[in-house]
Write a structure and sequence with these properties.
- The protein is of the alpha+beta class and 140 residues long.
- Helices cover 42% and strands 23% of the residues.
- It has 5 helices and 5 strands; from the N terminus they run βαααββαββα.
- Strand 2 and strand 3 form a beta hairpin.
- Keywords: Kinase, Serine/threonine-protein kinase, Transferase.
- It comes from Streptomyces griseoloalbus.
- InterPro entries: Anti-sigma-factor_SerPK, HATPase_C_sf, HATPase_dom.
- This is Anti-sigma regulatory factor (Ser/Thr protein kinase).
Length: 140
């Protein structure tokens, strides 16, 4: 859980990075420092979006990471189910915002959003691990 503030999102990202660094199998799953940086960037973007667009006074957001042999799944849940992410083909070049989900779409292997009744949503992103990518490459 983290407060839906910029500081809360920042703290959640650092806690997630620390958790990943201590997980058995993660250093091997992330083939390079670029993979780790990609995951960190995805976490930063999703938590920042929750702080910016998912804020409800008195309610926290939740960051969850699930590491399997093939995938790292990042989930950020907030209380604003009426504010679903909009998939836009491109952001305004002069705009100050709107590029975050384009970044998520380009860096993640998959991403999406799930609404929760009676309110709230979970925005998620998945990254394929190195072991899974190696198996896929060997099949080709």
């Amino acid at each position: 859980m983290f407060p839906t503030t910029a500081r809360g999102a920042h703290g959640a990202r650092h806690a997630a990075e620390h958790w990943l660094a201590t997980q058995q199998g993660w250093p091997e799953a992330a083939a390079t420092d670029d993979d780790t940086a990609t995951v960190s960037l995805l976490i930063a973007e999703l938590t920042a979006n929750a702080a910016l667009h998912g804020r409800v006074r008195g309610r926290n957001a939740r960051l969850a990471l699930t590491l399997t042999p093939t995938t790292l799944r990042i989930e950020v849940t907030d209380a604003r189910g009426e504010h679903l992410p909009v998939r836009t083909p491109e952001a305004d070049a002069d705009g100050e915002s709107g590029r975050g989900l384009l970044l998520v779409a380009s860096l993640a292997d998959a991403w999406g959003c799930e609404s929760h009744h009676p309110g709230g949503k979970t925005v998620w992103a998945e990254c394929t691990t190195r072991a899974a990518r190696t198996r896929q490459e060997n099949r080709v």
